[in-house]
Every structure is written in structure tokens, then in C-alpha cells.
């Protein structure tokens, strides 16, 4: 008596439309069955074999099973009979849901978290191109006479401008990573470290944890009340020297990385690797050419640090002290298109403090929707250049009242209070959605 072994049938080989795949496979199987049955009619008629005997008859379709990594299988069981056993059959495997695709079907993530980060990479390339051009060809420019000096002045001005833009890029990258891959992100942070002149991971305790979460209080190392010169242009120019200040910054970094050693040690390794790389770089370029290292490397780094601290002073001086960001008057916004193009929307500062996990490219839209209808109109400045010129000579709050260092309207203490680093959140995108918005 002929009792064929149970066979497995390919029912569905598509992750998108199971019914369509089933119809196609069934039609193909039916055609195969028709051709096969016509060729075996003589055999069935010439023998006493009956397909309706007590034993089950199964037609084996020659459909090889697809790879498990790229197809789905449904196992067909034969009708129950005394002569057939299903104990050796594999278990039934239900179709996989779209939420749990196989490893080979998972969509590959793009390199960049947001396509506008191409501008970030473009500005970074321009910075290093300008720096290397000056490093290699400055002697030739000097020997070319007046035209060479003009070209040198233009290139050096571009280098200083790009160094300010690199400081903003460092700020953005330590809020929301540029790359999906953390390996690429850490490699990019090495480039930012070389351009900024400090391990860029120091932004995590000094800016993300101190300035953003304790804006304007004694736990904010960047608070504008630490600048107390009578001439406000000195406050703007020397903001880097007083906020956060060398002693306070070192203490903050020590406390932060000591806490992170217990909860997230890779951050400590990243910081010390950036620090070691920066030291090696600075020593190497100084040994190669002391003049060029001071003029092009250290000069650009100093410019970037000075700019980011000065712009922070201008954005918060004279605003309300609101560390919880319940209101809208805790930061000043520069809304000019050119400023925000070259500085990657850094002018939209109120919404950045309210939702620090938002990607910089979406800040203008969120500002118009959530901030502009509620903020005081004096805190929306369309022209940065005019505001800078005015502020250099007069220091006023956002209501137009003069600010005098040492008066009773503000806390002018230079003492910084310690911060408890009790959570492992570092990038704003690490935080839960209900507490810190993710990047869009």
C-alpha cells in the first residue's frame, strides 16, 4: 500500500499581501497538479490502485521550501488516519507580525538622524578646508604681496566665522546626536573636539545638566549674573572667562564623571579619549609649527569658545529666572534668517530650552506654533547685528529697565551650588518621551 510522507506546502512567501501570495501559489500548484494527473491517467486506469482506499493519498507538489530568513512557511498537516502519524511534523508557525520582522527584513537606518545634518557636515568640511589651506599656503600668500595679504585676511576671517559655527555644531551634536551609529557619533565628536579646543563631551555636564536644567540659578554655571563689568561690551567679550569659569567647570566635570562611572562608564572612557586626543593634537601641531598652531588652531578654538559663551550671555541677560521653563520669557530669540542659517537655528532659544530634544531644523516651526503667540515681543529680535551694537553700550532687561550689577533685583553671587547627577540621561534623545521630547 502506498503511503507517502506528509509534505510541507508553501502557502505564503510575502510579508505584504498573504492572500495574493496564497492565490498565486495555489494556482501554480493546481496547474502542476493538472499536468501531473493527465500524465498518470493511464497508470491509474491500468492498475487496481484506488485513491479512495482506507489509506490516505497525498499529492506531493515539487515546491522547495524558501529560506526561513526571507519567507514565511505554513505547515500543512495530512488528514488524521490510523496509518499516518503527525508526531514528527514541525509545529505550526503563525505568520509574523509587521512589528517583529526578521533580521534580514529590517530596514536599514540612514547614517544621519536628519537629512539637514548635511549642512552640519558641509560646514565642518569648510572649517577644516580653510584651516588646512592657511596652514599649508600662508607663506606663499605672504610672499605674493598685497593680493596675497588680502586673500589671507579673507581666509582668516572665514576661519574665525567657521570656528563660531563649529561651536554651535558642538552644542547641537551633544543635545541630539548627528548619526544613528554611536561609533560614527564618537568619531565625529573627535573632529568637534579638535575644532572646539575642549573635549566636546564636557557639554554634557556644563551645558545639558547645569545650564538647561537650572537656568539662571546658582546651579547654572553659565548664568549671566556672573558677568558684572560696568561696561557691557566687556561682559560680552569676557563671558568665556567667567562662565563657567575654570574652577567651577573642573569641579562640575569631576562630580559628573564620578557619578557616571557608576551608571554609564563608556561616557567616562569617551571623555578621557577625547581629552587625550586633544592633548596629542595640540602638542603635535605646536612641535610642527608654533606660529601656525597658535594662529590657526588655538586662535580658532578660542574664537569658538568665546562666541558660544557670548551668545549665551546675550540670549539670557535681562530675562526672567525660570528654571522649570513654565513661562516663555526666560530667553531672547534672534529670528533673522541669515543668523539662523549659518548658526543652525541657534537663535530660536526659548523653544530650545523648553524642548531641548528637538532637532535644530524644526525649531522655527515649533517657535511659531508654541512660543511666538505667548512671548513678550521684546524677546523676539529680528536683527542680531543691531541688538549687539545696542547691547554693547547699554545693559537692560527685556522690559527696557537698566541693569546695574550688584542691585537687589537679582542674585549676583558668584558662588555655584553643587548639582546632583542622579540620572544617566546624557543626550536629550535618551530621555523618555514624556519627560524630554525626542528629536523629530
TrEMBL record:
Q: Which UniProt keywords apply?
A: Membrane, Transmembrane, Transmembrane helix
Q: Where is this region: Disordered?
A: 85-107
What the entry lists under Pfam families is as follows:
FA_desaturase
Instruction: List the biased-composition ranges (Low complexity).
Output: 85-99
The record's annotation in InterPro entries points to: FA_desaturase_dom
Asked whether the keyword Transmembrane is assigned, the reply is yes
**One biological-process term from Gene Ontology?**
lipid metabolic process
- Lineage: superkingdom: Eukaryota
- On whether Transmembrane helix is a keyword of this UniProt record, the answer is yes
Q: Where are the transmembrane segments?
A: 118-137, 149-169, 267-288
Query: Residues in domain Fatty acid desaturase?
Result: 147-369
Coiled-coil boundaries: none
What is the protein name stated in its UniProt record? Fatty acid desaturase domain-containing protein
To which species is this protein native? Prymnesium parvum
Amino acid at each position: 500500500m502506498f503511503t507517502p510522507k506528509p509534505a510541507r506546502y508553501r502557502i505564503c512567501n510575502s510579508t505584504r499581501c498573504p492572500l495574493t501570495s496564497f492565490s498565486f501559489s495555489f494556482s501554480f500548484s493546481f496547474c502542476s497538479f493538472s499536468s501531473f494527473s493527465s500524465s498518470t491517467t493511464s497508470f491509474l486506469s491500468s492498475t487496481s490502485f484506488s485513491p479512495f482506499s482506507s489509506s490516505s493519498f497525498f499529492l506531493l507538489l515539487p515546491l522547495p521550501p524558501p529560506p526561513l530568513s526571507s519567507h514565511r512557511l505554513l505547515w500543512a498537516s495530512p488528514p488524521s488516519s490510523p496509518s499516518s502519524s503527525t508526531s514528527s511534523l514541525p509545529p505550526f508557525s503563525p505568520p509574523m507580525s509587521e512589528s517583529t520582522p526578521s533580521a534580514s527584513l529590517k530596514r536599514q537606518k540612514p547614517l544621519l538622524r536628519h537629512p539637514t545634518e548635511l549642512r552640519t557636515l558641509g560646514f565642518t568640511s569648510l572649517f577644516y578646508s580653510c584651516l588646512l589651506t592657511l596652514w599649508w599656503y600662508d607663506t606663499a600668500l605672504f610672499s605674493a604681496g598685497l593680493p596675497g595679504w588680502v586673500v589671507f585676511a579673507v581666509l582668516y576671517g572665514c576661519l574665525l566665522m567657521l570656528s563660531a559655527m563649529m561651536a554651535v555644531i558642538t552644542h547641537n551634536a551633544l543635545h541630539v546626536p548627528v548619526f544613528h551609529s554611536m561609533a560614527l557619533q564618537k568619531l565625529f565628536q573627535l573632529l568637534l573636539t579638535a575644532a572646539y579646543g575642549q573635549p566636546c563631551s564636557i557639554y554634557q555636564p556644563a551645558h545639558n545638566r547645569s545650564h538647561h536644567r537650572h537656568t539662571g540659578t546658582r546651579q547654572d554655571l553659565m548664568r549671566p549674573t556672573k558677568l558684572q563689568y560696568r561696561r557691557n561690551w566687556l561682559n560680552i567679550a569676557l563671558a568665556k572667562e567667567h562662565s563657567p569659569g575654570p574652577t567651577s567647570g573642573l569641579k562640575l566635570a569631576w562630580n559628573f564623571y564620578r557619578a557616571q562611572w557608576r551608571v554609564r562608564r563608556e561616557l567616562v572612557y569617551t571623555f578621557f579619549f577625547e581629552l587625550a586626543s586633544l592633548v596629542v593634537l595640540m602638542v603635535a601641531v605646536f612641535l610642527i609649527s608654533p606660529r601656525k598652531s597658535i594662529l590657526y588652531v588655538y586662535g580658532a578654538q578660542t574664537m569658538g569658545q568665546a562666541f558660544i559663551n557670548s551668545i549665551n550671555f546675550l540670549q539670557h541677560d535681562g530675562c526672567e529666572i525660570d528654571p522649570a521653563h513654565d513661562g516663555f520669557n526666560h530667553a531672547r530669540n534672534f529670528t533673522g534668517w541669515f543668523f539662523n542659517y549659518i548658526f543652525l537655528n541657534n537663535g530660536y532659544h526659548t523653544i530650545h530650552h523648553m524642548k531641548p530634544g528637538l532637532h535644530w531644523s524644526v525649531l522655527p516651526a515649533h517657535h511659531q506654533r508654541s512660543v511666538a503667540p505667548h512671548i513678550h515681543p521684546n524677546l523676539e529680535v529680528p536683527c542680531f547685528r543691531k541688538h549687539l551694537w545696542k547691547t554693547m553700550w547699554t545693559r537692560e532687561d527685556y522690559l527696557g529697565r537698566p541693569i546695574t550689577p550688584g542691585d537687589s533685583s537679582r542674585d549676583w553671587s558668584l558662588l555655584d551650588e553643587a548639582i546632583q547627577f542622579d540620572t544617566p540621561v546624557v543626550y536629550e534623545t535618551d530621555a523618555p518621551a514624556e519627560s524630554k521630547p525626542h528629536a523629530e
